[in-house]
Amino acid sequence: MPDTAHLPTVDNPAHDSLLIALDCAVPLWMLQLRAETPAAREHTRRLWAQGGASIVASQGDVLQYGSKRPGEAAKAFNALAQGLAALAWQPGGVTFAGRHWCVDHDACATADATAGEPLHEPTPDPGPTFRGRPLVDVPVPPEVL
Description:
The protein is mainly α. 52% of the residues lie in helices and 7% in strands. A hairpin with a 2-residue loop joins strand 3 (129-130) and strand 4 (133-134).
């Protein structure tokens, strides 16, 4: 097997294989989430997102370099695919390595269209007023009282 670990991502056939596998696995995990009740789905999504982040952060290198222990790459791959499936249920979906997954593509288009707009700062609450002027606390030293 050729060494693919030192190739740039765009020229790496292992990268292509990972993306093809994710194109299959993520929608299947999304279907499993769709079959659950809303409460169970939220619970599962949290578990998958947290577990996926933890496993990919600590063992993601096995996706790139492989592992001598059987099943380690599959464990990391499934954690990544489940995490992406969980994120696909967020408004706007998720994009990873140029691939996009979502459950409501119209919401994604709306999110993309408004992504460049500045966020509006909330107006601060002026607090209590008297005849239109703000009331403020003024600290008075004890010796003045």
